[in-house]
Specification:
Number of helices: 1
Shape: flat
Low-confidence stretches: 1-15, 28-43
Radius of gyration: 21 Å
Mean pLDDT: 77
Structural class: mainly beta
Largest sheet: 12 strands, antiparallel
Helix content: 10-25%
Length: 171
Amino acid sequence: MWILELRLKKHSKVRQINSLPSLALAIAVLIASSFAWAEGASSSALPCSEGSQKARGPAPNGRQAEWCEVEGIRQGPYREVHDQGAVAIEANYNDGKLEGPFKEYYATGKLKRSGAFHLDQLEGEWIRNFENGFLQDKSVWREGRQQRFWDEHYESDGTWKRTLLYRDGAR
């Protein structure tokens, strides 16, 4: 009997493997998942437009990121992944500024927050969810300033907590 121990940061997993074919399969899966990011095998290929190229590196928060760029300026899709490989953020850049839909996900794959950017500023309706799926809050933004209601809910059951009124960025 072999014991395969995988250590990823603070987490560890121990599996008992009773046959050589099972051991070979476990090693193959481990190697494939280890090199998936380096080889560009994320959940789906990042579609860069003609004239742009794919780039990879660490995001400011330490996650791995990939994006399209033209002459060193972000242009097109942007994606960050959690340590486990699940998509963490999906966004889009235009001339180096966040532009268009933005989605952030928990490591479980559930939607954490969504909204849009215009010229690198929050724009329109933004929604945040608790990891259990209940709505955490909603807000409306214009030119990076909060405009309308902000509704907060309890995490445990989703019941209404309070509403704060914002007008032109001020409460």
